[in-house]
Every structure is written in structure tokens, then in C-alpha cells.
Amino acid sequence: MAEQEESRATAYTTLAPGDGFRHELEIKRSRFITVLRRASDEDAARALASELRKEFHDARHHCSAFVLGPDRAIQRSNDDGEPSGTAGIPMLEALIKRETLPGVTDLSDVSAVVVRYFGGILLGAGGLVRAYSESVSAALDSAPLVQRRRLRMCDIPVPHHAAGKLENDLRSAGYVMAETSYGPSETILRVALPDDANAIADAGERLASMTAGASGLQLRGTEWVDVQG
């Protein structure tokens, strides 16, 4: 996986991978079709609106909002013809104010588009704000979310004959194992640790205890990894 630019945050919440998650509301005969998709950059985030303009070419509005990055530094919205401030900003606020845990608002790398088919009844500014906000919130209610963490990759060289037992011991101790590689004389186990000096030091001590000092951690780069649970 590609390493992202270093950030202050070491974890955040995002959508599970997928083509997109859809939800539809009807409000006073107007249809609001919301599509959420995970996006890694602005090009990917904007691509969702472009795709939906083609799919729903006869809709009056294709309003959009997205928030990107572990620190949520990139935030954009577009009203797409609705009165200024009645669509894109309420959608963006629904994303950035979403609680992923009680008191935690860390949702990011999400692009949202709401396609509106006008039903002939004017909603007014307040009605539009509520409609676009509720559309995104309702879609998020049913969308699968995952936590994404910045982990430090560490290699552990170990003799072939000892690799299987050590890997099982590490898994049993709760460590996240990454890919394993094999050399002519040793196996390289790779473990993903929290990107924190104390966590790395504790893991080094535990490894030394497990192997009677025969193996140590070799620090590599960091990667952002989806963590289940």
C-alpha cells in the first residue's frame, strides 16, 4: 500500500472499500439520491460527481461534498445550482460532524453526491438545508465504516524452523501481522505496530522475551491500514 504524507492524526474513520453506497429519500415529491464513496484524493472525489451526472443526466442538481486526509485538511462542497449554502455546505457538515464513536468526529476520505429530481414543490432555503443534510446522514447510517490506522512496519528475521511458532505467538499476543518473506537462510516476519515510540519499545521487549533475545525489530516505513473491529 502507498505511504501517505505524515499527519498529526494516527487514526481516523472512513468508508469500507466499494463502488459506492446508495440511499434515497423522497421529500415533498422531490427525490434525493445520495451516493457515498471512499476517495483517496481530490480527483477521485470529484470523479463521483462526474459519473453520476452521466448516470442521472436528466436530474436537475448533482450537489457534492467531500472531506479528505487523516487530518481532514481538504474539505470542499458544491451547491450545483441550488441556492447558495443550501446543499453543499449542509452535506459537508453532515460528513465532518458525523460521530463515529460517542464524542468522536473523525470521518474522512469520503465523497458524497446527492442527486435531486425536483418534484414540483418548493422546499425553501430551510427545507433544502434539512433535506440535503438528512440525505447524507441517512446514507451514512447504512454505510459500512472502518477504522484506518497509521502503523509502523517492522521486520523480524528468524530462522526458518522457528518462524511458524513465533508468528503464532505474535498473533496470540494481539499483534497485526503483515506479509511474510523468505530468504535463503531465514524467514522475515513483518509486524504492524502503532506508530508510537512506547508501543514499539514494548513490542521489542516482548519479542526479546519470546525469542530469548535471538530476534529483534528492524524498523521500516509507515502504512495506513484498514483495521477491523
First CA to last CA: what distance? 20 Å
Label the overall shape. Answer: elongated
State the helicity in percent bands.
25-40%
The chain-level structural class is: alpha+beta
Q: Averaging pLDDT over every residue, what do you get?
A: 92
Give the strand tally. 11
Largest sheet: 6 strands, antiparallel
Low-confidence stretches: none
Query: What fraction of residues sit in β-strands?
Result: 25-35%
State Rg. 23 Å
Order of helices and strands: EEEHEEHEHEHEEEHE
Number of helical stretches of at least 4 residues: 5
Q: How is this structure best described in words?
A:
By secondary structure, the chain is an alpha+beta fold. The protein has five helices and eleven strands. It has helices at 42-55, 88-96, 124-142, 160-172, 197-210; strands at 11-15, 21-27, 30-38, 61-68, 74-78, 110-117, 145-159, 176-177, 181-182, 186-194, 218-227. Strands 1, 7, 8, 9, 10 and 11 form a six-stranded antiparallel β-sheet that branches. The chain has a five-stranded antiparallel β-sheet with strand order 2-3-6-4-5, sandwiched between helices. Strand 4 (61-68) and strand 5 form a beta hairpin. Helix 2 (88-96) packs parallel to helix 3. It starts with 10 loop residues before the first strand and ends with a strand. The model has no long low-confidence stretch (mean pLDDT 92).
